[in-house]
Design goal:
The chain is of the alpha/beta class. 42% of the residues lie in helices and 18% in strands. The protein has a 6-stranded mixed β-sheet, with helices on both faces. Strand 3 (69-77) and strand 4 (85-93) form a beta hairpin. Helix 10 (313-321) crosses helix 12.
Length: 444
């Protein structure tokens, strides 16, 4: 195995401090453009609510749609800053045919599963629902929005450019689900921010680092120059849609190939360098290059690398940080044999290059967003983070935190990354509670 190719890969996947500083600077510029309604790769979509107060109470439904797996939750909010409690939860899986068929069919399936949840848990009285819809949506208000485009390989027809909640409500009627009132439409990143804000008033940012990537940030209303309807709050949460950021990113030819093979070519450049959905695809392309150029795996392409979806994120987990026994067990499953010491080291190295680059780019985007954040405290800033990449990938949260400190300097000492599990679901319930109670501190 030649070392020269690995050294080349080191350069292709490096994100030096100078690059992070450029990204931070351009993030701030794109945020300002987005808030003013000018052309920008960061949409800066108003969420029509401020951070939660912690006084919200009652039981509320949350429907969390962010990928092929979606869930329905019944959440109890005790108020007084106490943690929300998930009373009941169910997960359902959408098929490739459902996410790429018609919008009518897709939302009909979702309505059917929601009806099943209500029946399974004997919920018969009217109940408010917060809908976490983790795709780029132009909100028209707190409870309605227009789908701008599909991401994450969704392509259901007849939905882009239309009102999402209206389509879902129609599907509920058709499925005879009559006791659900959709009162809030939220992005999962906004929901993550809200789920932590209900516990900690210093939380002003939500981040998703899982299958996808995005940031929501609390900004002063005076910064928002585009139309926000009747909203009159002094601050508002903004769904940045940061995954679409496309300035000064250190893209290489592997990134361009992932983009060309995706279902949304020329979009979501940052997400394709950061998110868990795409990291295994990058590793696959690098390994194929090593096989072709340096006779890695004896020049033979293992079946797991023949399809872009076969190599998984959890495979990366094992190869980068698993024990020798775990690596060899997985190798037997994927390749039909144990790896040689050199092969183990190369697989670990490639996974590490891809994952570390992800964390450093994410850190630059987070610090860029913090430059426009409206703080409640000058001493500390809590960043709520949800997603399997941050929670489970070996060493990812540590590398992210270190990169944030490196870029932020002394100011980084007051930044706290808080894992906010199930934030997208609980946050949707929090927003539903705010709306249902008529709390004008958030929505005016």
């Amino acid at each position: 195995m030649k070392s020269s190719l690995i050294e080349t890969l080191d350069g292709q996947f490096s994100v030096p401090l100078s690059c992070m500083r450029k990204i931070r600077s351009f993030v701030a510029k794109e945020m300002d453009a987005g808030l003013a309604g000018r052309k920008s790769s960061i949409a800066m979509l108003p969420a029509y609510c401020d951070a939660a107060s912690g006084r919200e109470q009652g039981r509320y439904l949350a429907l969390d749609l962010g990928g092929t797996n979606f869930r329905v939750m019944l959440v109890e909010l005790p108020g007084f800053g106490k943690p929300p409690r998930v009373v009941a939860e169910a997960k359902y899986r959408l098929t490739p045919g459902q996410i790429t068929g018609t919008g009518t069919a897709l939302f009909g399936v979702i309505a059917g599963y929601l009806g099943k949840f209500l029946k399974d848990h004997a919920i018969t009285s009217e109940i408010a629902l917060g809908y976490t819809f983790s795709f780029p949506v132009q909100l028209l208000g707190i409870d309605e929005g227009i789908l701008m485009k599909w991401t994450k390989d969704f392509s259901a027809s007849g939905v882009v450019g239309r009102k999402v909640v209206a389509i879902q409500r129609q599907a509920l009627v058709q499925k005879k689900v009559r006791n659900v009132n959709i009162v809030a439409l939220a992005n999962d990143t906004v929901g993550t921010l809200q789920a932590q804000a209900v516990l900690d008033p210093d939380c002003g940012m939500g981040v998703i680092l899982g299958t996808g990537f995005n940031i929501a940030v609390r900004v002063a209303s005076r910064r928002i120059r585009k139309e926000t309807g009747a909203y009159r709050g002094k601050s508002m949460i903004i769904n940045m849609e940061t995954g679409n950021f496309n300035k000064v990113l250190p893209r290489n030819h592997y990134d361009r190939r992932v983009d060309m093979d995706s279902g949304n070519v020329a979009h979501q450049f940052a997400e394709k360098m950061i998110a868990g959905k795409y990291l295994p695809q990058l590793v696959r392309l690098v390994v194929l290059d090593l096989i072709r150029k340096d006779h890695f795996f004896d020049g033979h392409v293992p079946t797991v690398f023949c399809d872009k979806e076969s190599f998984k994120g959890w495979h990366m987990d094992v190869f980068e940080a698993g024990s020798k026994e775990a690596v060899q067990k997985l190798s037997q499953e994927l390749f039909g044999r144990e790896l040689t010491p050199v092969e183990r080291r190369v697989m670990a190295r490639v996974c590490r290059l891809v994952s570390r680059r992800s964390a450093r780019i994410a850190a630059a985007l987070i610090i860029g967003a913090l430059t426009r954040l409206e703080r409640r405290s000058k001493q500390r800033m809590v960043v709520a983070v949800d997603g399997s990449l941050f929670e489970k990938y070996p060493g990812y949260s540590r590398v992210l935190a270190a990169a944030i400190r490196e870029l932020a300097g002394p100011a980084g000492k007051g930044i706290r990354l808080k894992l906010t599990k199930d934030g997208s679901g609980i946050g949707a319930a929090v927003i539903a509670a705010v709306v249902a109670s008529g709390n004008t501190n958030l929505v005016r």
